[in-house]
Amino acid sequence: MLERLRSSNNPNFFLLDYSLLNLSVVNFFVIPKHFFIPQIIEERKPLVITARRAGWIGCNILLHSIPQTGKIYFVKNGTIESKEKVLTKWQKTLFLREEQEISAKTWLLDVMQCVEELGKRDFTLSEIYI
Question: Counting beta carbons within 10 angstroms of the beta carbon of residue 13, is it exposed (0 to 12), middle (13 to 18) or buried (19 or more)?
Answer without folding.
Answer: middle
